[in-house]
């Protein structure tokens, strides 16, 4: 049973080349009946490398979810490794919403006893650790390793990013004694297969994992539960430039 | 991309009617290209309701995995809520192996902030709690509730099982304040949709979840990592009636 | 040594009567040399009762922190029990930033072996639990209890809020066997003393606690560490209506 | 009060020389009134070095417990560091059943603030960590170190096992800063005293610890509780070559 | 092998009738070769029912350990359920020192999946919970229940203590669904067998458990490790009435 | 509002030069209205470097608290990094009692995501780790590092203590990747500012933190809760040289 479904993939940063790249990765693993819309929000940071950037990516994400609900989207993927706005998005969405850090970490726990995350800047490592804890995946996470690559270097053709990331994965396997690698940035999605071949171990990209998990939950007719925290927010007044975000009863 | 794949669904108990039922549930959610073989082992207990039963279901499961590897099976589902023999199975298998407790608990964590397990006999409740801990899902598991139904009552047409389980799900939602329900026995797979309708909340069956997760991992070309604990077991002598289980180099 | 200091108290919701009320509570406990500016942001929700409201309160908070840094503010208090935007605010601020949930929970751990939180809507209870975990205070938090009062009812003269909250505190002490009570909403700050008298146990309001902690850290010359996660965010482009938030090198 | 008691020591692998050796170690510490029967099962692996080997050692262990109950055995020791089949065995036994990993880790926690485990193959390290967690002993376990010695090398007179293990214990004390050492394999039982002398720190062998704990529990008239999980398994049909394991009402 | 050994049982309170009673219980389970000296310290509280009493019981305990080391004592039992001064005592002692809470909780974890503690005053319940955590036994401890009996009521012939404690044990089994009971006061040692008979479940007294564990460790030649925290304290000056406690180099 | 208050600072060791030094540090940060009495107890060890020393420092501390209650002291600071006797002191005191380890660790968690403790002798490291756990601060504590300086070397003018401690702080920042440093001994209080300047990161001294926290709690009219564990101890007989410690009804 492969019903047609409409999946919206939100790249929370506003860099279109990255959005196009991860859209392509997503389509490469989707089922025949899945239509994938890959979008960047209308507002927000060019890349997400701090709590500040992350917090300010959320209005744009929620704007896309609100639009998606009007369009009848079946499920969403939030394609930034910090999973920004995940719980707020779940309040708005009827169907499932999956973050790519969440997806990658869960997938890792099915195929190995331990994983290492290889990410961009060192200042985001604690963020990944907090997510691992929130999802119950800290038991499996041996380490979070920074390459100190800025996110947008992943978009620069001449950068040394691929080599640096591959090397960091190799180190993680050897020093952390992890069974597999989780890539810590949506912008690394296109490198996943090549790195796996190079290092001889499973390498997990959250974008493609999240697409398959979202498809799975839609197939299983499992929506976001509206019984608890993730019930639809109450209608109320919003002021200033955020007044368009007011929900109505 | 929906490649053809061969998925083996192992019901660890030897009750054929249950195997047939859960095979049907699995096929109802599978992708068009997925071929599902639902089997019961050649040896073992008629139902699994104790550590003793569980331990003695494992040789039969491993026998099926060994056969599956010879037949080129792409992924396995172990369809008993105790996930018996999961790690030993992963040592033998090249592709992924998914347990239904594992699958259901992870799925629950994507669509709610908390779940309650509704299961059969009280003496198996700790087993479910240990699994939740092992998978990092204890953060989300508010309670494990026994109905005190023996497993095989689920196969008896005249039994009151459906009503009793539905009632226990209702109580769990009200008293545990959980967002969704995880059904704690493969034999409840066919009741999932009806109970969800009756109680007005997501109800999760591990058999169908595990099928979709196994399909997802195969699509993502993510095998079981062979770098750590789950490397293939070393060849060695086995004696007595277990001598057929000896692996060769 | 009581140096003059400038403390900015940010009520993350845009309801001015609440801002005025908690400003008065703050001033009542401040040292003579402390100047307190109590503000509501220029944008955002009228009250915060969901992850959605909370996420959308953060741009307004960060706008106030950015302004505060230009004005030479010594320390900030974020006066909503969800501590929205706390880590992003710390990235921007040179001095300390204290959330009221954080302040109240820590204070409780100094004067009792356990506390119960009494808050507004049930859907925010998990949020308080997540904060307790993040701060290491879950060991002391016996329960989070909702009164099911909407936040803005606390501002309505004729509402029954005081009686309902007092009753919930009494129940918490009796049923949870907690040593003290933490009030779970900034809007309850003015009720703290009366409830303590009524229930005969310490009752803790985060607004006043946060003011005293902020004063203490400034007196101790302890700024926010800029060595790790909370270093100043990198300059980069922001687009759409959030472009004013772009930081410059 | 030293009553006569009958203690059965089950070496879960089928290597008789190891069974004889650990039987001798057990007898050397037993009380005068304790009769120790050291046995290998009638079926199963020659050594246990994987989840697969461990799972397939359990039927033989349970076969020995069933026989022991018919013979009036007072307590059992399962003498493999993975404590295979421990909970299933407790379901069958009236008296106590002690695993050697459990016994050694608990003993370590009485005489030091921390211990390191020194074991055989690296692939079994996670197994030891899982046991430490299950028993609540992970707080005390600083490290699990593999020597990469196959289990049966411990039985080879000319092997370098003693030197390699002693060296690993020395490293553990120096690098992990542990207070004492737990030997991670029953086959090391005879080395315990010599290694302790060589490294100048307490070295703990689980076989002898388990014997003393079993004697203690029998002296204290403390049986396995039959109120919960470890009640006797329900009678039911078993099929195939495992049909002799069916219990009768 | 049952060597002669000298075991000192220290009742940290100064109530001689309780010391005599628990000495008798200890001797009833000891091996033939074990000589048990049961003592009360020369200074300290008549009973231990607060952190204050507990702290002030420690000088007397340490005084007895210092004397015991001069007398060649092989092992010590500290017979108060708060295990007062345990770590300081281990610094002084060459042989093992066992606390009765520690002993009872560990024993409980060998014979059941869960236990409830039944103790005296409610204000000591957190103390028992902290010990359970420190020993890694919180996983097994379902509840700590107070009877609100003062400790010295256990010594009064006409008191209703036996009935009240038995009733609390019954409630614990029913409501906590625990597999066994741990008695939370040394003064209950003589009631253990009768209560077990009355409630039909294992009931564990720490005094007798600690004696058997101490004997076991001495038989195994396992001393207190002197490599870490529990090395002998450094010699130094002590002043005032505590000057006799100064150790010399 | 800065009410006059009387704060008693207890240095649990009997070395008067250290008492004077930390009294001066405390007064340097106190509010104008705060009167600080810095005392050493009348009995106990010259320095605290073991569980034994710590246990025997407690009678002297409690003696000072008893005197303080008669004198109307508003709050207490226990100025030894092991926080000896903290809970017993809280039982006696009406107002708040703050330990310096507790104060420093909490302060660290407000200004950084992680801290390292730099302390004196290695044998006290576990003690600091246990406190971090007890206070919920283990999440933030990356490491506890010993300098192997005896406590009283901090009082010797010619010692190399300042250089050694500064170097250990530098190493901690670099190797542990911590955001800030907690000084692990009251005797280091006077070095705090200089080391912070030298290493370029926040360095936290517990003595001054505890003074500010105590002032804050008194200003907030938050006393020690008397509802649970920390209710006043029951009156009872004390014997031997501790008989003056008997409380009366």
CATH topology of the largest domain in chain A: Rossmann fold
Low-confidence stretches of chain A: none
CATH class of the largest domain in chain A: Alpha Beta
Average pLDDT of chain A works out at 95
| Count of runs of 4 or more consecutive helical residues of chain A | 8
Sheet with the most strands: spatial strand order of chain A: 2-1-4-5
Largest sheet of chain A: 4 strands, parallel
Rg measurement of chain A, Å = 18 Å
The end-to-end span of chain A amounts to: 36 Å
The assigned CATH architecture of the largest domain in chain A is 3-Layer(aba) Sandwich
Total count of domains of chain A: 2
Strand content of chain A: 15-25%
Task: Give a brief outline of the structure.
Chains A, B, C, D, E, F: GO terms for molecular function: amino-acid racemase activity; hydantoin racemase activity. By secondary structure, chain A is of the alpha/beta class.
Characterise this structure:
The structure is a homohexamer of 249-residue chains. Chain A has 249 residues and is of the alpha/beta class. Chain A has two domains: 5-100 and 208-245, Rossmann fold (3-Layer(aba) Sandwich), CATH 3.40.50.12500; 101-205, Rossmann fold (3-Layer(aba) Sandwich), CATH 3.40.50. The first copy, chain A, has helices at residues 16-29, 51-71, 86-92, 100-111, 125-134, 161-176, 192-199, 206-219, and strands at 5-10, 34-39, 44-45, 75-78, 97-99, 115-119, 141-146, 180-183, 203-204, 238-239. Chain A has a four-stranded parallel β-sheet with strand order 2-1-4-5, sandwiched between helices. In chain A, helix 1 (16-29) crosses helix 8 (206-219) and helix 4 packs across helix 8 (206-219). Chains in contact: A-B, A-C, B-D, C-F, D-E, E-F. At the A-B interface, helix 4 and helix 8 of A face helix 4 and helix 8 of B. Strand 3 of chain B pairs antiparallel with strand 10 of chain D, so a sheet runs across the interface.
